[in-house]
């Protein structure tokens, strides 16, 4: 592999060799059987057309796929649909208005029960409110909210009106929000007064006030009251949700939009400091989100209770809380808070309370549960669970087995789902009624999806070989570009294997001897911290924007709980005071302020020099060796090889961690 590889070593992954076939009973009742692979194999476009027919289309497409303008795909060309109608109205019309769509559980313990009929009324009222504010199809709306039902109403109201939403994770800073509003020229921000975090209300609106002070495109700020926190108010610009939405009619007729109408933009970290606005459109996106949710989780809409623990600020929340599940008439739990508030059994208490049958979470959380101990889940009745899922980073076999034994009672299939913000929906995953699962492997591309592991030259590696993960055929929920930057889109994803026309995912992978795929982590300068993508450059830019910092280099170091931890090496300016604990704390806080607390470095090491090649490129590989306490690798290409000695010595006295 390349020297950039930051993933766990394959040797660690291959310590578990058992496989787990589905029970006969599960396989017999599963939504997806082995025939699904055969159908996709026989005629890929006909297969996807059949999946698209699971949705309601106001007018049918003339062409399944137009790839003539590659890498800009068009799916279901000429078709028209309304995404929100597909997620809400049609379930009410088919007689399921009284079915619970959302069991909402607030962090302080308050609850709301929302049926599909309620959801339709709320989404309609919200759509009427956004129309009253003068918003029109194609306009962009920023949503900066905690996990409350109004966040979902807002997303669906945008979809209903053809507005393009840009959800910004509520843990991001004012600066991160500002740059995203600016990039998309959003006209409206929907937010709350505050949010509950670990049992306490924390203000949210001040960050919006700070952001929109510098974004002239914003006309209004719509504010949901969640915590009753006192907020500053700009008359004419700021509007309480209760003043505007509550008075609206609960009737609204949806309009059909083109299959390629933009549905949302979601910003994700790239290898430069500037986040990329990943653009998703309507028909193809909803087709694949819906198809994967139905088959990968084996959703039975009449009996299952589904829970995805992601935040709507990430793509998992978009595809597997909002669009996929609701299009399948799910009954789901939405939880506002952190997993250890008020106690470490909160998730299992919720599973027991609602009879959750499908649970989808991230490896970092599973490893945290492991740390808290198996006695905690053992106190609850988890017998309702029948499918478990994992997403966001490679799951180590040890965590996989712990999940199966302690949450899944050695019975439930586990689906390890590989995908990205860019892919829009799951791409590589077991099918729970078909696949004999292997702890640590996402295994193979879903029916209709094509993935390969290739070498430097783009040639597929043999079984047992490792290389780069590529997607060699277009798929319905693929990104349609980077908002406002077609060149960056081509360059980022399509230039590495331009001759072959492959999409390069940025991940390293390997085939085992059976041809199953094992993900090995990113091969670019993107870190994966608790399943969150953060670019090294973004953190470096934040650090050097601090007046005391002359230079900074950031690496992701292996971390037993979070997958990777952010380790920063900084050179202070000549006139700055020495790098004591206060200086280090100031820098960590500064990064949290610039990007958000999720990007706060685990460690900041003040060093006299950074290791550079003769051409001036920072050698991150060596810094990772230091950060992971390995003996330092080959330093022959360093301009000044004594630098590493200086760094190591500097660390021994100046390294700081808290
Ligand atoms: C990583 C999250 C291994 C991968 C849906 C990818 C995974 C990045 C898995 C995308 C998995 C996601 N096994 N690695 N099952 N799922 N990843 O855009 O490095 O937040 O490129 O999308 O997470 O992160 P993103």
From TrEMBL:
Binding site for Mg(2+): 544, 546, 549
Single GO cellular component term: cytosol
Cited InterPro entries: Ac_CoA_lig, ACAS_N, AMP-bd_C, AMP-bd_C_sf, AMP-binding_CS, AMP-dep_synth/lig_dom, ANL_N_sf
PTM per Swiss-Prot/TrEMBL: Acetylated. Deacetylation by the SIR2-homolog deacetylase activates the enzyme.
Documented EC number(s): 6.2.1.1
Cofactor(s) essential for the protein: Mg(2+)
Ranges for domain AMP-binding enzyme C-terminal: 538-617
Annotated positions of the N6-acetyllysine modification: 617
Catalytic activity: acetate + ATP + CoA = acetyl-CoA + AMP + diphosphate
Keyword set includes Acetylation: yes
Keywords: Acetylation, ATP-binding, Ligase, Magnesium, Metal-binding, Nucleotide-binding
GO molecular-function terms, A-Z: acetate-CoA ligase activity; AMP binding; ATP binding; metal ion binding
Source domain of life: Bacteria
Acetyl-coenzyme A synthetase N-terminal domain location: 35-87
GO biological process, alphabetically ordered: acetyl-CoA biosynthetic process from acetate
Residues bound to CoA: 197-200, 316, 340, 530
Residues engaged in binding ATP: 392-394, 416-421, 507, 522, 533
Domain AMP-dependent synthetase/ligase: 94-483
Known role: Catalyzes the conversion of acetate into acetyl-CoA (AcCoA), an essential intermediate at the junction of anabolic and catabolic pathways. AcsA undergoes a two-step reaction. In the first half reaction, AcsA combines acetate with ATP to form acetyl-adenylate (AcAMP) intermediate. In the second half reaction, it can then transfer the acetyl group from AcAMP to the sulfhydryl group of CoA, forming the product AcCoA.
Family: Belongs to the ATP-dependent AMP-binding enzyme family.
Annotated protein name in UniProt: Acetyl-coenzyme A synthetase
Lineage: Bacteria, Bacillati, Actinomycetota, Actinomycetes, Pseudonocardiales
Gene name of the record: acsA
């Amino acid at each position: 592999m390349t020297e950039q590889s930051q993933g766990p070593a394959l040797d660690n992954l291959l310590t578990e060799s058992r496989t787990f076939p589905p029970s006969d009973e599960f396989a017999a009742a599963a939504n997806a059987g082995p025939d699904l692979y055969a159908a996709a194999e026989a005629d890929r476009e006909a297969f996807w057309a059949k999946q698209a027919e699971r949705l309601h289309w106001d007018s049918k497409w003339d062409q399944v796929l137009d790839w003539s303008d590659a890498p800009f795909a068009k799916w279901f060309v000429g078709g028209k649909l309304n995404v929100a109608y597909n997620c809400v109205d049609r379930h009410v019309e088919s007689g399921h208005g009284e079915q619970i769509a959302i069991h909402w559980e607030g962090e302080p313990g308050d609850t709301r029960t929302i049926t599909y009929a309620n959801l339709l009324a709320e989404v309609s009222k919200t759509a009427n409110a956004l129309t009253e504010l003068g918003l029109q199809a194609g306009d962009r709306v920023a949503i900066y909210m905690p996990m409350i039902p109004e966040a979902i109403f807002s997303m669906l109201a945008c979809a209903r009106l053809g507005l393009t939403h840009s959800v910004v994770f509520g843990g991001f800073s004012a600066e991160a929000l500002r740059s995203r509003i600016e990039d998309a020229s959003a006209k409206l921000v929907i937010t709350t007064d505050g949010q509950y975090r670990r049992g306490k209300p924390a203000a949210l609106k001040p960050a919006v006030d700070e952001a929109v002070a510098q974004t002239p495109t914003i006309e209004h700020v719509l504010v949901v009251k969640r915590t009753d926190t006192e907020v500053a108010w700009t008359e004419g610009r700021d509007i309480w949700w209760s003043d505007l939405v509550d008075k609206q009619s609960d009737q609204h007729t949806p309009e059909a939009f083109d299959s390629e109408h933009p549905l949302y933009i979601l910003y994700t970290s790239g290898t430069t400091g500037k986040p990329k606005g990943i653009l998703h459109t309507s028909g193809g996106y909803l087709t694949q989100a819906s198809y994967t949710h139905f088959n990968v989780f084996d959703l039975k809409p009449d009996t299952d209770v589904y829970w995805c623990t992601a935040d709507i600020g990430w793509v998992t929340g978009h595809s597997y809380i909002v669009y996929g599940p609701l299009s399948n008439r799910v009954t789901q739990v939405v939880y506002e808070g952190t997993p250890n508030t008020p106690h470490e059994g909160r998730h299992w208490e919720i599973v027991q309370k609602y009879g959750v049958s499908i649970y989808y979470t991230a490896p970092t959380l599973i490893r945290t549960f492991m740390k808290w101990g198996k006695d905690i889940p053992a106190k609850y009745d988890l017998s309702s669970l029948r499918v478990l899922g994992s997403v966001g980073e490679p799951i180590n076999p040890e965590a996989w087995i712990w999940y199966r034994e302690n949450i899944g009672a050695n019975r439930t299939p586990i689906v390890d789902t590989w995908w990205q913000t860019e892919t829009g929906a799951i791409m590589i995953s077991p099918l729970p009624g078909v696949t004999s699962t292997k702890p640590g492997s996402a295994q193979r591309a879903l029916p209709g999806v094509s993935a390969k592991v290739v070498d430097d030259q783009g040639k597929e590696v043999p079984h047992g070989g490792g290389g780069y993960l590529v997607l060699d055929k277009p798929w319905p929920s693929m990104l349609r570009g980077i908002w406002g930057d077609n060149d960056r889109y081509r360059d980022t994803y399509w230039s590495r294997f331009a001759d072959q026309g492959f999409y390069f995912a940025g991940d390293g992978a390997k085939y085992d001897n059976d041809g199953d795929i094992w993900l090995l982590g990113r091969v670019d300068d993107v870190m994966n911290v608790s399943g969150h993508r953060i670019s090294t450059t973004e953190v470096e830019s934040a650090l050097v924007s601090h007046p005391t910092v002359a230079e900074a280099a950031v690496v992701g170091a292996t971390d037993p709980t979070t997958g990777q931890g952010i380790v920063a090496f900084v050179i202070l300016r000549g006139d700055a005071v020495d790098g004591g604990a206060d200086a280090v704390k100031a820098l960590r806080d500064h990064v949290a302020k610039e990007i958000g607390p999720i990007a706060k470095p685990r460690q900041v090491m003040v060093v006299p020099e950074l290791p550079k090649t003769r051409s001036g490129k920072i050698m991150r590989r060596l810094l990772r060796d230091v950060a992971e306490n390995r003996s330092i690798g080959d330093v022959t290409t360093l301009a000044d090889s004594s630098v590493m000695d200086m760094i190591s010595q500097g660390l021994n006295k100046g390294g700081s961690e808290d």
